[in-house]
Structures are given as C-alpha cells and as structure tokens.
Amino acid sequence: MATALVIGFDRFPGAPRNPSSDLVRAIARRRRPALARVKIVPAVLPTTYVAVANELPALLKRYDPDVVLLFGLASRADRVRIESRAVNAASAVHSDAARAKLSGSQIVRGAPSELRVQAPLGRLAAAIRGSGVSLRHSRDAGRYICNASLFTLLESARRSGRPKQIAFVHIPWPRAPGRSRRPPLRDLVRAGEAALVALTTASKRG
Question: What span, in angstroms and rounded, lies between the C-alpha atoms of 102 and 167?
C-alpha cells in the first residue's frame, strides 16, 4: 500500500483562515476507489519557518511517504496554480505566522539555488482540468512558507530518493456562491483528489 502525505497550512498574516487546511481534511475524508490502496495522511502545518524546518522532516521520518502533495493559499489568484520549481531563498520582508523571518538567505545551506519539481505536471494539470477546475502552470512558488516547504521536500528527495513524487498546488480563495469566478471549495476538493490520484499513479509506475 502506498502512503500519501497531503499537507495544508494554517493561518498567516493577511489570511486569518487558510482554506488549504479545509481542503486537506476534506480530501482525507473522501473514499475514491482509485485511492482504495493508498494510505492518506493529512497534515496541517503552522505557517512558520520553524514548522518547515522541524515538523516537515518529522512527518517524512514518521510516515516515509511515497507521495507528498502540498496545498497552499495564493490569496491574489483567481485559479489553481501548479508550481514547477522552488528556490533556495526566503523573503527578507514578510514575516511568518509567528512574526519571524528566516535567519540567513538560504532555506537549506549548501543546497542548489533552485530545484525543479520532477512530478508529471502535465498529468496533474490534465487531472485537475478533467475535474472541471481551470488552472495555470507557475514557475515561481514565491519566497514565503510555500516555497520553503517545497524546496525542503525537493532537497530531501534529491539526497535520499524519497519521497518518489512531490507536487505543490496553490489554490485561490474559494468563492461564495454567485460571488466570483473562483471555484468553490467543493470543486477544489474534487480537483485536489484528482491530482492525488494522478500523483499516486505516477509513483506506482516509477
């Protein structure tokens, strides 16, 4: 049985509620037949650099997942974004949820300046579009906690070969009915589940 770690984040400055945490919990409750032989481990991390440095590696050590799928909030976006790389740098301007900034300019000292996602991004995109949710590809995960968590995971995989598949999906604020073109949470849940199926399938093939 494959193990999939599905991660969302808690609130942060400017976002008193983070819908990525609701999304992760909802995906974990669903029972899609394609995921019947996948152990789904949901986790919601504090939006802090300390959590990225300590809690994220602890989750990897405890569960040794084959797949890690992360969801984060892109508060200014109007559609889903699939990230294609992470950089070894953090913002010197924006504080995390604990009002702290990363000490030093690098997320992982001695690691490459950037790492590219090796997951089948085309399949992920097709799965999300097939669920009825529009998206775009993104080559910049920012310089905040989302980027730091993705880089930390990619560097772990570069060094150890695990996890087999890693992907980061940014979501917009879910819309209230009739309020905007952004997808409602139920559609984001369906899209996230479809992405997880695509990622676990790729892991088994690899």
Answer: 23
- What are the boundaries of each domain within the chain? 2-205
Is the model's pLDDT at 176 over the cut of 90?
Answer: no
Q: Which of 42, 14, 9 is nearest to 148 (CA)?
A: 9
Q: Dihedral sign, CA of 194, 199, 204, 205?
A: positive
pTM assigned to the model: 0.94
| pLDDT band, residue 95 (cuts 50/70/90) | confident
Cα torsion 58, 71, 191, 184 to 10°: value is 130
Predicted confidence at residue 8, as pLDDT, reads: 97
Consecutive H or E run containing 191: helix 185-205
Q: Does 2-205 carry CATH code 3.40.630.20?
A: yes
Give residues with Cβ within 8 angstroms of 184, minimum separation 6.
174, 175, 176, 177
